[in-house]
User: What shape does this take?
Amino acid sequence: MTTTITNSKNIIGFSVLGLGTLLGLVSVGYVLMIGHSNAYNLTRQIPWGILISTYVFFAVSCSGLCLVSSLGHVFGIKEFEAIGKRAILVAILALLTGFGVIAMELDHPFRMAIWVILSPNPLSAIWWMGTLYGLYLILLCIELYAFIKENHRLASLVGLVGFVVAISACSNLGAVFGLLEARPFWHGPYLPIFFILSALVSGCALLALIVYFNHSLRGIEMPPEYKKFMITLGKLQALLLGILLFFIIWKIIPGLYEKYPGIYEATMAALSGKLSFNFWFFEAFLGLILPFILLLNNSTRTPFGVMLAGLLTTVGVFFMRYDMVIAGQIVPMRISDGGKATGVLHYVPSVAEMGIVIGSICACLFVYVLIEKKFDLSHTGHH
Amino acid sequence: MYRNGLLMSVLVVVCMSVGLALAADGGNSKKGKYLWKTNCKTCHVEGGGASVLSPSSKTTKEWTEFFDKNTNPVIMEKCKKFPEANLKDIRTYMIEHAKDSDQPETCG
Amino acid sequence: MTLKPSKGISRRKFMLLSACAAVGFGTMSIGKRFQALAASKDIIPLSDLGNRDVFTTCGMCVNKCGVIARVRNGVIEKLDPNPYFLKSRSMLCARGNAGVDSVYSPDRLKYPMIRTGQRGEGKFRRASWDEALDLVVKNLSDLAEKYGRAGTVFVSSEEFQEHFFTTFAECYGSPNTLRHPSLCLSSNIQGFGATFGTNPTPDVLNTDYIIMSGANRSEALITPDSIDMLTGSGGRRKLVYLDPRFTKTAAKADEWFPIRPGTDMAFILAMIHVIVKENLYDRKFVEEQTEGFDKLVPHIEAYSPEWAAAKCEIPAEDIRRIAREFAMAAPKAVYYQGRRSSFFDNDTQMRRAMAILNAIIGNWDKIGGMVPNSQIPLEGHEFVAPFYEDIPERLEANAATYLSEKDGSWKYFRDRVLEQKPYPVKGMMIYKQNPLVSVANREKTLKMMEQMEFICTIDITMNDTACYSDVLLPEATYLEREDPIESLGGIHPVLVWREPCIKPMYESRPNLWIMQELAKRMGDEMSASFNYTMQEYREHQVKNNPEILKALKEKGVYYEKDTPTYGQTIGKKLKTKSGKIEIFSQKYADKGLDPLPVYKHPESGPAGQYRLILGRTAYMTHGTTANNAFLFDIMSENHIWLHTSEAMKKGLKDGQMVKVKSPLTTESLRLLITEKIRPDCVYLSHGFGVLSKGQRLIFGKGGSDAALVEDFVEPISGNMAMHHTFVEVTAA
Amino acid sequence: MKKKRFAMVFDISKCIDCKACTVACKAENNIPLVKDNYRNWITEGPLRGKYPKLGQSYIPGQCMQCANPPCEHVCPTSATYVNVDGIVLVDNKKCIGCKYCMTACPYDARYYNEKTGAVDKCTFCVQRTSVGRIPACVETCPTKVRVFGDLNDPESEVSKLLTKHPYRVEKPEIGTQPFLFYLV
Assistant: This one.
């Protein structure tokens, strides 16, 4: 009985993910056929859209997964040791997906591969981003290998290096935005630091999802050690969300305080303008406040509650990345419509952009679930 | 205010131009142009032997005098070769396109 | 642009070549520029046919600026301004730069075409030149037989090869040639002509005080005025600008007054009032060189600034002050008459008032004043048109008081075609005019064309008029043609010509060739009038000074002196009856017209309606350039302007679609809400809302002013009066 | 030969927003005629005052050819570089289309050119200036708003203008050190 239910669930699940992946592939084909400028709703004023924010979502999630899992195999916190291998695997998948998404955003991903090496510019945050995440991918692969081979020495050594690189990579990704003096909403040291914190939040949220769904997917009761892990994770996440809340509040207040041009308009766009629904509903309510309440409350801080909080936070973080990327560009660099009241710019992702985003998420999940089905990762490797 | 003046000047002009108007009347300007071009103009150009002449060389008044009160024996002799009606056509053409004619300037 | 081969590669070869720059080029003297051009090998010799720089003349608008066409590998890559061409102050505007697209546009007329579908349906079949020309000649002969030679009207507009078209009309024997001035400046010519005997040019470069009313020089570009308006000498220059709109000229003016449309004459008469009353006029000049000042004095008695202020809504103290400043600046002061003057039905008299105001401050033929045009004389190419008996007068003869026998009056002519009186006109030959876009009341033009038995259009593109024609003959564009030498008159007269940059594309042919082929088919007598090549024609034009040809070849322009000459008419008789400047026009009195301008207040519109005013942008020439890819890129539709306060009242939003309803029709177009217009007016720019699907870029874009505007007329000159239409604006 | 420092000086009081510069640039540099594709522009300044007392300026602009160009700093493959005459250029073959330079430019001076497959911008018409000619926009400008020249040459028109007249640059606070100067 349970098997049939699980099976039919599986079939539905796989079909949904498969269809999503297919949608992504169709979108990719469409873009390759008609060209970026026709397929994407990007303009010279908003050159970065949802593909960039989705890449950021995946890349930072990847960093976050490793940072949180390193609590186990690098810093030796027992509860966290159980999830090391899975975290690494998902991190690799997330990063590869992120690379895939950004390859669709770049007009010449192959040129990049050549000229990033032949003609490097170490002043460029994107050059460092490519280098660090490239290095990081290699480290992740070694780490996964070490886990599979149960080489703990190697795992914790690579884990330590990986920890440093993960923080460098994700904070550097923040610096990709933060170094731009032209974009006052992004500019400054805030984003690199914020990216480290939000990586941790993402990592915790994803881990909760991974652990929970692994058991429910297989239709097996969650062992006590995992239950314990989920509760600890919930507590940690509550702490992180509390800190994140203040990060966000302190991003808003200076934005309004002096009405600094560029920052004020962008902040207002988030609070009451074009991005306000995203901000209040997805980012603040779904992503932050609701999970925070769920995790603070003892009665809801159950494995299911922690998973639910993780799911909500993940959705919230996805929109957080989007809002951050768009808000930074939404204020025009020059006034171009004369006497009229100048508004903020307009951007809505095109069908192709959405298709690629949905496809990438589905593909990532699809591959992950497939691997989980084929290989037994639950073996934690500790005696 | 100026009505009196207007009336006066209308009268004066009417009197002055009665003869002119009568004389110009009846000629075919287009035919005059054709005749002028085919008979007279060949000489009345630079290097043509005669003085360079075109309708806009003279004012209406000057043309009228030229045709009506001309005493120059050379010109009288030349004009004789045209029948009266043709001369009238040429006269009409010249007057209608005189320097101070009512023909407005054009553009382009 | 699809037809244009890529030029990126050859260009990039030049990149990063070591620099040896002659900087500050733009500010050099002409002579130095010449040396620099030669030294930098900037100009490629003509001997290399594939790659060469051709000195020719722009054809994108009426100004005819000097152009150097850079031809590379047989393609015109870029049009650059000709630094020798003084009149345009070595510039090229947006349209001039966009000229390449007139050659390479996919919407060009490429082959002779014969209509297959209904008129206006846009269905044509490709024909050979022989077939098309034979068909035209057959129709012209049939029409002559059926309705007489006056039964065909020859419609054309200014162009270096227009002369051949009017020659053809004359040889064919039709008195009915219909040109553009009665849609443009004929009231202006009439008003100034009646006063000065000619329409002079304001010496904008050297004047200290300019008043412009409705002459939007920043957008309706006229060389060199648009440039000189801003670069005047000495820093004492003042520009006063009257316009119901805050145009780009208003933005450059020292003072802008949103005058009530149609009341300019009140402002001018009040200025005259002040200048006369306060004895600020040039007494000596007035006594010596004008006629009828004594009649002016009592005439302007009632036209006080206070009286005018109530009419034109410019405060009396401003009028008084401006009048004084204007007179103080004399003779370096001009009341600029502008160009298009088809505004109101009293326009000729309004221009007369302008002329009189200029006359009394004695700015005539002086530096910084009103200067009669000079012209470098060209020998005409002699031809003798056959004479046909029993050719009637022009169709609309005597309709207007003073009708130009060549130009006619569109308004009166079209009305009489529709009435079929005094005789029917059933044939239409069209060269370079696009009446469906340019003539007010499009419905009437369509009716006029519908009743034609035959319409032939010679043009370069499938515009609306071409679309409603029976036979289309593709002309070569100005960049493909060898054109006669043209004498451009003005303060500083020049001669220009056109040299072909490339061979005519497709099967397009120059108009001279088309006319010669038609004439050949019409018979020997007509053919004799076209018995020359373009080269011979040019040689005839300059037979007294063959040096001109050499200069034109080298520099694309010929002028006799580096500086203008002033005062050539001083002490000589003007072309008026009295030989003097006629403040009081006896000639008008004789015709029963007001001999001195009498103010007539424009009617007010119905409540809730707006006066529709028309105008231009700097990137469009009339109805001819909207479909140009470069210019479409800048302006892809026209908007109806409405003042913020009115839009607020109506609850209309910026950018929304609105219906504009005139007594004639309704057009839908996008709304532009702005502070830059009088609240009782709306404005629409020209050239959009076309009917022809053959103009693929702009079809379906914007609205047509020609469809909305009623065809009122100025009866002295026969000029259209296009600002008498009131419209409703409602949400679409 | 002495190094050059090309610069442009604008007298915006003369600008009538006729767009000759924009079209000249597109024709000269073969810029695909698609919306958003342009190297130079004229913006309408804010309308000053209330009807009927109004004022407005028209402000031409293009790549500021910064001495401290953020676009160059951010380019991961050094596709954006500064040439010997101080002109900021893009090496098309190295451009990966990441558009980082577009987000980094405080002047919105760059666009992505689908035809060349690279980010494109004003080059001071390097194909002309490198052989001693002046940029197309400068040459064609009807009212001669624009003056182009070498600031390293004290005799050049631009040098003289900048010593004689007060001027401003766009967004000086960002520290880009633009070489487009606006007379005030």
